Amino acid sequence: MLTVLAVSLLLTLAFEEGFALLWGLRGKRELGLTALVNCLTNPPVVLLHHTAVVFWHWNAVLAAAILETAAVLAEWRCYRAFSEQIHRPFLFALLANLTSYGAGCVMNLL
Questions:
Q1: Is the pLDDT assigned to residue 110 strictly greater than 90?
Q2: Does 34 have pLDDT greater than 90?
Q3: CA separation, residue 12 to residues 4, 45, 100 (Å)
């Protein structure tokens, strides 16, 4: 499980930092904030998803939808509170998560 958590976090950081650069974020503070926010949200989401699906027998799609929504909301609040460059923090959080989640889905298919 630790390997799954580590790989998921590293891929999420790569995709969302890349998204942040494409969004126009620059500087250690903003890119560091993006990394920190994902370090705070990704491991709990992955662990809770695994727990919900394997041990509680939830539907995987429903679990992902609920947990990803919670992650977007948490990240939005962090960006709104601490970012100096993100002027539309909800849209940023939503699109960054869609990018990394979508990329992860594509990678799982391959």
A1: no
A2: yes
A3: 12, 12, 6
The model's pLDDT over 62-105, given as tens digits with 9 standing for 90+, comes to 999 999 999 999 999 999 999 999 999 999 999 999 999 999 99
| Residue 59 buriedness (CB in 10 A; 0-12 / 13-18 / 19+) | exposed
With CA atoms as reference, report the closest residue to 45 among 19, 75, 24, 15.
75
Burial of 37 (0-12, 13-18, 19+ CB in 10 A): buried
- Tell me how far apart the alpha carbons of residues 50 and 63 are, in angstroms, rounded to a whole number: 9
State the Cα–Cα distance between residues 79 and 8, nearest whole angstrom: 21
Total domain count for the chain?
1
